[in-house]
Design brief:
The chain is an alpha/beta fold. The chain contains four helices and five strands. It has a domain of about 80 residues: Alpha-Beta Plaits (2-Layer Sandwich), CATH 3.30.70.2390. Helix content is about 40%, strand content about 15%. The chain has a five-stranded mixed β-sheet with strand order 2-1-5-3-4, with helices on one face.
Length: about 140
């Protein structure tokens, strides 16, 4: 019973503090919006990147430790937007493969293959592959 009374007192104090703070919720919202800094990404001059680039997810499906990180760094250096590298344990990939979501990403996926200079296959993503749903998945097995 005593704990209930203490809880009621603290709730009352909280309401009183909020009601008498002297600042309306609208003012607080404006202050919060004003304090948020906006940033913009620098323009890239890379010949392989374009304004419509999709996000790339480099996924290591092989046994070479750190391969996805290496390829991610290489793609970033060439002007592509990449997510953090990841690992895939599904075991169904035997070659480097670039998976695009739909026809709107196919040309970009081909640019990625060209930028890597590899013989990676470029294929439409199977529905069973659920990693990197909105981006282009760069599945690497070998260097």
């Amino acid at each position: 019973m005593l704990l209930l009374a203490v809880a009621v007192v603290f709730v009352g104090l909280g309401w009183h503090s909020a009601a008498t703070s002297g600042q309306s919720p609208d003012e607080g919202l404006r202050d919060a919006e004003a304090s948020v800094a906006t940033t913009s990404a620098p323009a890239t001059s890379s010949a392989t990147a374009s304004a419509g680039d999709a996000r790339l997810c480099v996924i290591n499906a092989g046994s070479i430790s750190g391969l996805a990180s290496e390829v991610t760094d290489e793609l970033k250096a060439k002007g592509f937007t990449t997510a953090d590298p990841a690992n895939y344990n599904g075991g169904s990939f035997t070659e480097n493969t670039i998976l695009y979501r739909d026809s709107s990403q196919k040309a970009e996926a081909q640019k990625v293959a060209t930028a890597l200079g590899s013989d990676a296959s470029v294929e439409q993503r199977p529905t069973s592959f659920t990693m990197c749903r909105d981006g282009i998945a760069v599945v690497v097995v070998t260097r």
